[in-house]
Amino acid sequence: MLGKKVFIAARYSRRKEMQQVALWLRSYGYTVTSRWLAGNTKYNKRRRAQMDLIDCRASDWMLAFSEYGPSTHNARLTELGIFIGEQKPIHVIGPKEHTYFHLPEVQVHDTLYDMRRDAIGNGL
Question: Domains, the chain, ranges and CATH?
Answer without folding.
Answer: 5-122 (3.40.50.450)
